[in-house]
Amino acid sequence: MKSRRMKSKRILSVRGVEVYRLADGTESVVIRYSVQGKPKYETVGKSVYRKGRNVTIAKAHKLLARRRAQRDQGRLLAPERPTLAGREHLRFEAVAERYLGAEASRYARPKERYRLFEVLKRAFAGRYLDEIIGPDILQYREHRIAGEGVFRADGPVGPDTPRLEIGALSAAYEFLRAEGTVLKNPCHGYRPRLRRKDDRLEGRPRHRAVIPTPVEREALFTADPVDRQGRRRVKPAFRAFWRLLYYTASRPEELARLRRGDVVLAGDERARFGRLGWVTFRETKSGDDRVVPLHPAAEAALVEVLGGAGRPEDPVFAKRGRPGVAWTKESYKKAWAAVLAEVTVAHPRLAQMWVRDWRKAAISDMRAAGTEAAIASRVAGHSTEMSYFYSQATQPAAEAAIMTLGSGPACGTGGSVPQVPQRGESRN
Asked: Which pTM value belongs to this model?
């Protein structure tokens, strides 16, 4: 910037905004402000005129006001590049430890932040954050998608994992900026940052789960759309997938990872719940395995999908021609869109329903049938501040909660709802 000013001529200076005419005849707009008594110059860009007005000068005034506000907040007091003696605190391991201790509790799922940073530590061990540049981020993402880090022996992690990890790395850079260390965030402009629960964009509507009625639910279960040539667009495995999402109150990614060895049908010697079988969901969001009794409708769907014999490590829902590779979100995305396109003709309310809403529908129906919140949470595998109360729910209570699905007035079959005693009344 200094050499450019020596070869140019200042033609305008207004309240910290200067315009220079360069040797090639073009005009350059520069802002000037001071930090700790030292002048700072920053080029905004070349002059652009619209209707006789220099719009670059207007942009420069806004940028100057922003820089002065950052200076007043102490965000511009640190040097652009830390000295060698003070760089140890910028090692990735040190920043991650400090960040997780100070910021992880502000996120909705702190355990997930720790897991993401563990992966990043293995990739950026020994690196300084001020040395990581944009191409490093791009190379890291490509390696994670194509490398063995995304596809492990026990199944795929999923294509969204690199995006979340880069979001965690970006959040660490913003954490350093808030501490007063000015570092360029190499993740900006490449992937959006992770948003905290209290940082939701104003005016952006949140998804409200669509809870289908019994008639709508049956329409979704039995939908069989065909294309113009009369070929089926939704195979029986997808219809079984919808039923299992509802009758096990599971997350789509958990059900897609379900292995044959984690399924115990009724009558098996390993059955824990008498006449009911059970499934074990592993690698859940809370990090613990979750055992869910099988509703008869869920067991019928599993029998239809399992078919012949297979290895215990094979996924229940495997990709076509690849028995050892489990489904991903892309596997059932088109099938779900085809189902909604057919069902919404008679039930337009379902147009905004997501696959994940099956889980919320199951929990809502259990609660409407009189199931206590602690038992419903035990079945769903929630991990919140109420974990103490969740631990009080027993497995027989979980079996009773599963058996309420598809019954009761809220589910359309006219079953009875347990009456909650009022204050002063006897429970007997």
From this structure: 0.49
